[in-house]
Structure formats: structure tokens, C-alpha cells
UniProtKB/TrEMBL annotation, chain A:
Organism expressing this protein natively: Tessaracoccus rhinocerotis
Protein name: Sugar ABC transporter permease
Domain of life, per lineage: Bacteria
Record Pfam families: BPD_transp_1
Parts of the chain that traverse the membrane: 20-46, 83-103, 115-135, 167-188, 209-236, 273-294
Record membrane topology: Multi-pass membrane protein
TrEMBL record, chain B:
UniProt-listed PANTHER family: ABC TRANSPORTER PERMEASE PROTEIN MG189-RELATED, ABC TRANSPORTER PERMEASE PROTEIN MG189-RELATED-RELATED
Keyword field: Cell membrane, Membrane, Transmembrane, Transmembrane helix, Transport
Subcellular localization: Cell membrane
Transmembrane segments: 12-35, 79-100, 112-137, 143-161, 182-208, 246-267
Protein name listed in UniProt: Carbohydrate ABC transporter permease
Record-linked CDD domains: TM_PBP2
Taxonomic lineage from the root: Bacteria, Bacillati, Actinomycetota, Actinomycetes, Propionibacteriales
């Protein structure tokens, strides 16, 4: 009798202790999250409706900053440039999947190649940007000297508005290849061999095996890479600021984050910059949500 | 006695190896060229045709570079920021991951999902209020705005360690609890040894991310002696490009790359394994 009433009370005291311990372990990250992410996020939204230069208190101006953004040719152009850079994402995915397939073969030297292709990934973006700025030098840069070997007279890449964006894309693909290759390689290695063997017995060509086994099996990695690359790509800043410190010829390389940064910390238009930053956040959210929706729909179709 | 299929596979291997080799050269050529430029004279940079191996390597560039700008201060500042953030932050993150994965607490999954969703907010959306916040407490032009947020932990790291911890059987922890071990003791003597490889991998990845960060240090640090290494080398680039002193710029960049390369070479296996894990768990 006493044992049955004792048990729950004892347990609830133990639980309470456990709850407290858990809460104390979680407390710091949660406080940090509220103080350095949620708080600033809410303040950004508020600031986006104000005129604010940091020297005086913000004054409420309603939607004026948003109206200004959509009639600001620099905002539109920097947004367009940012999307243009994302052309590099599919290129990088195709090349890195090809690399992963190559490295998934039974052959010597795989580990060596894997490391070689991974070196740019660990390199600091600032140092890599400095290096590529020099490599894109019109007269003495590495890129044009290599092109000269095959008789091509290369442009002054970063000073020409037709080539500055492709130049930045090439560099981004070069830097990111090793990372996506590694993820693809891990996915390929987890594909059961029996799938391929069964397909081979059925007489499926290597072409068919690739499209009906390999691609669907690595699809989760492709999804992960597309989502994270778009989130990262929408925030491209370092290479723009180092390689084209003025936003490129006729503003042709400026990215959205670069423009926000300029408006906030050079022109002190904190309110306007906040509005553009909020628009960026909303855009990233919508694109990500859209991708998750597409992904869910596709995997549903697969079941049917 | 190789079969036709085996022969074909081997020929395929040779073609693939040649393609990988050419690709590999493309991958490392820019880095080798940076090294080569850093050893040239200021005039040698403009020699045509270019010299891959400078006839008279200017090792003195690597001495000159230390007095040409606050490179040493940059390294020191970067070390202070990266080490403080990753060491303290890893402890906070690991404890939180332990609580999220193994301890009972009402609402903890909701809190976790909430924090995970927060990862989607881009840093640029937060940077202006963060800057104002730190400006109000007088922390601009100090390393504190770079250190303090990181010390509170890293949601990505919590996420991966929590995933990793789900493979640790609950019975192990229950047994220790029955033996009367406190939570910190359970954590230190059972959980920690089990997930040490995962912590190490996350620690290395985080260290490299903080070491390579550019935007946040650029916003907060104005005095050259207070800047982190990445901002210092970017300033080298801006200042010495006008004087076309490319060897000096490249020497500074090489120095900035060396620490991460060393870490990569030493911890290659852990880095590659944990990155591969990112995709499968993500």
C-alpha cells in the first residue's frame, strides 16, 4: 500500500531534478539564441519601418523603405546579380557528381585525389579571393596566361562587366567542388551493390543504371546541397568585397548582402538596410520552403 | 587471366585517372601559383612568359611581410577568437546536446525545433541590430562581439551531436543513474568518451569556420592592430595592390592559409568523415 503511493512521488521528485538539470544545460544556447538571433531578428523587422541613422533615434516611416527598395535600381541590380551567381550551383553539382562517380571506382590514388580536390574547401575565402583577383589580372594573371597557351586573348576579367560575374562563378565552383563531391561520394558508397547487380542481370545499360539507380539514390544529397547552396549563395559577400571593392564595373558584381552592408555601414542608412535585410530573409525562407514543398511532393509521387 | 569486363574496367580506370589528374592540376594550380608569386621579386611578377619557379626565390618576402602590416596581431586576434569560441562553445553545445538527446524535460523538442528553424535566418538580417547592440555596450573595435555569441553554443553542433547521441543506448545511462551517479558524472564518464570523435570533428570544422570568417570581423574591427587575420590580409591586398607589390600580398595570404592546411593534413580523416556525415544526416 505505502509502496504504491511512495513510488510516483519519488519518481516525480527525480523527474523534477532531471528537468532542472536539462534546463540548465539547455539554458546557455537558448539564451544565446534569443539574444543574438531572435532579438536582433525582431528588431530588424521593426527597424525596417523606420528612418534610422544610428546617431538619432529611429523614426517610424511605415512602408517607405520597402517602397524605396523596389524603386531602387541598385537594389534590383544587386538582387539580380545575386541570382545570376547561382548559375554556379547546378554546374558545381554536375561536376562534383561526375568527380564522385570517378572516385567511387576501385582504383589506386583515390584518397590522394579526394584530398587534392578538398584543399580549396578548407582555404579561407578571403585568401582565395585575393589569389583569384590576381589570377584574373588582365595582363599578368594566371588565367589569361593559360588561355594564351591555346591562343586565346583573355579579357580583363574583373574590370569587364560581361566577364566579372562568370569569373566569380568559376571561382566559386572551384572552391566548392570538393565539398559536394565528398557528400556525393559518401552517398554513392552507401548504395547497395546488389541494386546494380540486379539491374545488370536484367540487362540495363549503364546509362539506365545511372538514371534509374544512381540519381534517385543520391537525391537526398542533391536536395541538401541545393538547399544549403542557395542559402549560402544568397549571402555571397566576401569575394565581392575583396575582388571588386566598388561593386564592379557599373555595379555589375555587387551582391545583395554587399549592398546592404554598404547602405548600413558606409551610408548609415540603417533603416533602409534593415528593410533590404528583411527582404533577403523572407526570400531565403520562401525559396527554402518552396524546395521542401517540391521535395515532399516528388517523394510522394514516387510512392504512387 | 583477366576477363574482358575486367580489362574494360582497367582501361576505364586509366581514362578516369588521367581526367582526375588534369582536374587535380586545375585545383592546385592557383594555390601553387600563389606560392610561386610570393617568392618572386616585384618585377619578376610581370615577366613574360611567366616563371613558375622563380630563378632567385625571394624568401625575404616572408620576413618583410611581418613589418609591412599587423600580420602578427592578426594571427593573435584570430587565435584568441577562434580558440575561445570553439573551446567554450563546444562545452556549452555538448552539454545542450546531451540534454536534448537524453534528459527528460517538458517542451525540449519544441525548443530544439525552434532553434533549428532559427538557422534559416541569414546573418545579414541580424547583423545590423547585433552591431547596434554591441555598439551600445561599447564593444565595437574589440574582439568581444566575435567571441560572446559563439560562447553560447552552436546550433549546428548541437544538432549533429544530438543525432550522434541517439545511437547511445538509454540503458547505459539508466544503469549509471541507478548507481546514483550525478548528471555531470554521467556526462563526463559515459557520454563524453562515447561521442569524443564527433565532438572533435565538429570542433575542427567550427574552428576553421571561425578562423576563416570575414564579414563579422570586418563590421566590428576598425583599428588595424585589433583586426583578425582575414581582414588584415584583405587590407594588405587593398593597400599593396596600388604599389603592385603582389609578392608581399601573396606571402601574407600564404601565411593565412598555412594554419588551416596544417589542421587539414593532420585531421584529414576526421574532417572528411564528419563532412560526409553532414550530408547523410542532414
Amino acid at each position: 500500500m505505502s509502496a504504491t503511493t511512495e513510488q510516483p512521488r519519488r519518481r516525480s521528485r527525480l523527474y523534477r531534478r532531471e528537468h532542472l538539470v536539462a534546463a540548465s544545460f539547455i539554458a546557455l544556447p537558448l539564451i544565446g539564441f534569443l539574444a543574438f538571433a531572435i532579438g536582433p531578428f525582431l528588431y530588424s523587422i521593426y527597424a525596417s519601418f523606420t528612418n534610422w541613422n544610428m546617431l538619432t533615434a529611429p523614426t517610424w516611416i511605415g512602408l517607405a523603405n520597402y517602397v524605396r527598395a523596389f524603386s531602387d535600381p541598385y537594389f534590383i541590380q544587386s538582387l539580380g546579380n545575386t541570382f545570376f551567381y547561382m548559375i554556379g550551383i547546378p554546374i558545381g553539382l554536375v561536376v562534383s557528381l561526375a568527380l564522385a562517380l570517378a572516385m567511387n571506382r576501385r582504383m589506386p590514388g583515390r584518397a590522394f585525389f579526394r584530398s587534392i580536390y578538398y584543399v580549396p574547401v578548407v582555404s579561407s575565402l578571403a585568401a582565395v579571393s585575393i589569389l583569384w583577383q590576381w589570377a584574373y589580372n588582365g595582363d599578368f594573371g594566371l588565367v589569361n596566361q593559360v588561355l594564351a597557351l591555346v591562343g586565346i586573348d583573355g579579357p580583363n576579367w574583373l574590370a569587364d562587366k560581361a566577364t566579372v560575374k562568370p569569373a566569380l562563378i568559376i571561382m566559386a565552383v572551384w572552391k566548392g567542388l570538393g565539398y559536394s563531391m565528398l557528400l556525393y561520394l559518401a552517398a554513392l558508397q552507401s548504395v547497395p551493390r546488389s541494386l546494380y547487380e540486379a539491374a545488370e542481370l536484367d540487362g540495363a545499360s549503364s546509362f539506365r543504371r545511372f538514371f534509374h539507380i544512381t540519381l534517385p539514390m543520391v537525391q537526398p544529397v542533391t536536395f541538401f546541397l541545393v538547399v544549403t547552396s542557395i542559402i549560402a549563395g544568397s549571402q555571397i559577400f566576401t569575394e565581392i568585397n575583396i575582388m571588386t571593392p566598388t561593386g564592379g564595373p557599373e555595379f555589375s558584381s555587387a551582391s545583395i548582402v554587399w549592398y546592404i552592408w554598404r547602405q548600413a555601414f558606409s551610408s548609415l542608412s540603417m533603416g533602409y538596410a534593415s528593410a533590404m535585410a528583411v527582404l533577403l530573409g523572407v526570400l531565403v525562407f520562401l525559396i527554402t520552403a518552396f524546395q521542401f514543398w517540391i521535395n515532399a511532393r516528388n517523394s510522394h509521387d514516387g510512392v504512387e | 587471366m583477366a576477363t574482358i569486363a575486367q580489362k574494360r574496367y582497367r582501361t576505364g580506370n586509366i581514362i578516369v585517372a588521367v581526367a582526375l589528374l588534369i582536374g587535380g592540376i586545375v585545383m592546385v594550380a592557383p594555390l601553387l601559383w600563389m606560392l610561386s608569386t610570393s617568392l618572386k621579386t616585384q618585377e619578376g611578377v610581370f615577366a613574360l612568359p611567366p616563371e613558375w619557379i622563380p630563378p632567385d626565390p625571394q624568401w625575404s618576402n616572408y620576413l618583410r611581410v611581418w613589418t609591412a602590416g599587423p600580420l602578427l596581431a592578426g594571427i593573435k586576434n584570430s587565435l584568441i577568437v577562434s580558440l575561445t569560441v570553439t573551446i567554450v562553445g563546444s562545452i556549452t553545445s555538448t552539454l545542450a546536446a546531451f540534454a536534448f538527446a537524453k534528459l527528460r524535460m517538458p517542451g525540449k523538442n519544441g525548443i530544439f525545433l525552434f532553434m533549428l528553424a532559427g538557422l534559416m535566418i541569414p546573418f545579414p538580417t541580424l547583423m545590423i541590430p547585433q552591431f547596434v547592440m554591441f555598439a551600445n555596450v561599447g564593444w565595437v573595435d574589440t574582439l568581444l562581439p566575435l567571441i560572446v555569441p559563439g560562447v553560447f553554443g552552436n546550433v549546428m553542433m548541437i544538432f549533429f551531436l544530438r543525432q550522434y547521441l541517439t545511437s547511445v543506448p538509454d540503458s547505459l545511462l539508466e544503469a549509471a543513474k541507478i548507481d546514483g551517479a550525478g548528471y555531470l558524472r554521467i556526462f563526463a564518464s559515459i557520454v563524453l568518451p562515447l561521442i569524443r570523435p564527433a565532438i572533435a570533428a565538429q570542433f575542427i570544422l567550427w574552428f576553421m569556420a571561425v578562423w576563416n570568417d570575414y564579414l563579422a570581423p570586418l563590421i566590428y574591427l576598425n583599428t588595424p592592430e585589433k583586426q583578425t587575420l582575414q581582414v588584415v590580409i584583405a587590407n594588405f591586398n587593398a593597400n599593396y595592390a596600388i604599389q603592385t607589390d603582389y609578392p608581399l600580398i601573396m606571402a601574407a595570404s600564404v601565411i593565412a592559409l598555412v594554419p588551416v592546411f596544417v589542421i587539414f593534413v593532420v585531421f584529414q580523416r576526421q574532417i572528411i568523415e564528419s563532412v560526409a556525415l553532414t550530408g547523410t544526416k542532414g
